[in-house]
Design a protein that fits this description.
The complex is a heterodimer of chains A (about 140) and B (about 400). Chain A is of the alpha+beta class. Chain A is about 20% helix and about 20% strand. Chain A contains 3 helices and 4 strands. In chain A, strand 3 and strand 4 (about 80-85) form a beta hairpin. Chain B is mainly alpha-helical. Chain B has 3 domains: about 1-35, no CATH class; about 135-335, no CATH class; about 345-395, no CATH class. The chains are: A alpha+beta (about 140), B mainly alpha (about 400). Chains A and B meet through helix 1, helix 2 and strand 2 of A and helix 13 and strand 3 of B. Chain B: Pfam families: Ribosomal_L50. Chain B: Belongs to the mitochondrion-specific ribosomal protein mL50 family.
């Protein structure tokens, strides 16, 4: 059960007043034995310190998961979880995946069909100088 | 049609020899040719052969070379270069064999097959046979090396003339190294003296029985007498006579000196019994910890210390690390390497900067759902509810 915000008349926009990172926790699971964890283990040994220090607002846990592929799990403030299997990835690729999870908002992936995303979409659409007959001087 | 055997062909009558052939079986008689139709390869050249044919004799008249010399083409031909004469190898003197030595023709009853074992050619390495792995022993070895090197420096002796053999007894246990403003000083406590340390080193070098008496007398004397000792010791070292003695000592080493050294050790040991069996931990604790901050920036001292430490422990400090070492502590950090962590958790726990971060938690075991429930204090409630419903309390712990 995740703490939900109070309902209000206006819709809050993350980043308008303050930016709140949507990812609240990252779990790193590794295996000591399996070769698919090689890059993950290298990341945990060498890069995790810097990554954790750069992201103090994200809780980071490291725990083994024996005989399984390495996984990064992100937990978001909307109550959802995202997990990425990082088997056989290199240290740099694991870092990319961790940054991807950190930057994600926790929502399901949606197909983006419109060029503009807004909570107050105009029925007229976006004005364009090329599609209105032009300006005659 | 019946084939005529080879031997009975008419051409067979031209055979150079007319003597009857020895007995041949029927098959051999068929296959083995009784004569060869190919011309004989003679050693004579074509011109000579022609001359002989023309004249019909083996000794044709006339000059061997009617034109009085070699032709132009023959002159132009490269003369075969004379083979470079190899300088005769110097024969080294064969090792003296015993008078009653008789080389064996068979290997029956021999203990070993090959050359006679010659002790003077036996390889004696600089490094010890076994590498020191214990941290405390390594620390003690570094301390010993430093005391010895600083003692040599204090006495004004050459730092590089270290003994090849390492004496079992360590006279440096009771010596403190004190970093000072005007250079590092050695502080000798009650059971030690500069002379004793130097004697142990010199004793190692020369292995001469003369030093024994000096060693016995030295501990009783005060440090002021060191100067007097020095005058005795110095001439020994660079003197040619002492070096010749050294050589003989090395040669005699396996035959006679071994017993002498054993006897030496048995004499020295009872004096040092109480110290020799002191555990390294207590020994290290007894030293002033400031010895680790002693500067070793002087390249000569640094090299000598590293060389002696290498000799005592067998642990090599990499060249790249030597340059950056400035204190005894830094040398020790290169000598004593922590064992490679087998598990990732061990490696992570050694990383102080990661563990101390407030947002990071590292677990040694798998984190199960029960752990998660426990961390937020819900597991007790779940357990109680399960028991109330008479359900099994199971799960991954």
């Amino acid at each position: 059960m995740v703490v939900q915000g109070i309902r209000k008349a206006t819709v809050g926009q993350n980043g308008v007043g303050a930016f709140i990172l949507q990812c609240k926790r990252l779990d790193f699971h590794y295996c000591d034995w399996a070769g698919s964890s090689k890059g993950m283990n290298s990341f945990l040994r060498n890069s995790l310190t810097k990554f954790a220090a750069l992201n103090p607002q994200v809780e980071i846990t490291v725990s083994p998961r024996p005989r399984r592929h390495p996984v990064i799990k992100g937990t978001y403030i909307n109550g959802r979880e995202k997990a990425i299997c990082v088997r056989n990835l290199t240290k740099e690729q694991v870092l990319q995946k961790a940054e991807l999870l950190r930057d994600a908002n926790g929502e399901k992936l949606k197909k983006v069909t419109k060029p503009v995303k807004s909570i107050n979409e105009s029925v007229r659409g976006v004005w364009s100088p090329y599609h209105d007959g032009g300006i005659h001087v | 049609m019946r084939r005529i055997p080879i031997t009975s062909r008419s051409i067979g009558l031209l055979r150079p020899y007319t003597t009857p052939t020895p007995y041949l079986c029927a098959i051999c008689r068929h296959q083995a040719p009784a004569f060869s139709t190919s011309s004989l390869r003679s050693s004579l050249d074509m011109t000579e052969q022609l001359r002989r044919k023309v004249w019909g004799t083996d000794n044709p008249p006339g000059l061997e070379d009617p034109y009085g010399g070699q032709s132009k083409f023959e002159k132009k031909k490269p003369q075969p270069t004379p083979q470079p004469t190899v300088a005769p190898r110097k024969m080294t003197a064969a090792p003296q064999l015993p008078a009653d030595y008789v080389p064996s023709s068979t290997w029956d009853g021999l203990e070993s097959v090959g050359d006679i074992w010659e002790p003077e050619y036996e390889f004696g390495g600089f490094l010890p046979a076994e590498m020191v792995t214990d941290t405390d022993e390594m620390t003690a070895a570094l301390h010993r090396a430093m005391v010895e090197i600083f003692a040599l420096k204090q006495a004004g002796l050459s730092l590089l003339d270290l003994p090849k053999a390492v004496l079992g007894v360590d006279p440096t246990h009771d010596v403190d190294i004190v970093p000072g403003v005007d250079g590092t000083q050695l502080r000798f406590n009650k059971d030690s003296s500069l002379a004793e340390v130097l004697q142990a080193l010199i004793h190692d070098v020369s292995l001469s029985p003369v030093d024994e008496t000096a060693e016995k007398g030295a501990p009783t004397e005060a440090e002021e007498d060191v100067a007097a000792d020095r005058s005795e010791l110095d001439p020994l070292h660079p003197d040619e006579s002492s070096t010749t003695i050294d050589e003989t000592a090395v040669k005699e080493w396996p035959t006679e000196s071994e017993e002498d050294v054993a006897a030496d050790r048995s004499e020295v040991d009872p004096l040092k019994d109480s110290e020799a069996y002191m555990p390294y931990e207590e020994l290290i604790a007894s030293w002033d910890p400031s010895w680790l901050q002693v500067s070793v920036e002087d390249p000569e001292i640094k090299f000598a210390i590293l060389k002696r430490t290498l000799q005592l422990t067998g642990v090599r400090v990499p060249d790249s690390a030597i340059r950056s070492t400035r204190t005894a502590q830094s040398i020790l950090s290169h000598l004593v390497t922590p064992p490679k962590p087998r598990k990732l958790i061990d490696a992570l726990e050694q990383k102080e900067d990661l563990i101390t971060l407030p947002n990071v938690s590292v677990f040694a075991k798998r984190v199960t759902p029960i752990h998660k429930e426990k961390s937020i204090g819900r597991w007790k409630l779940i357990e109680k509810e399960l028991e109330a419903r008479e359900l099994p309390v199971t799960g991954n712990w």
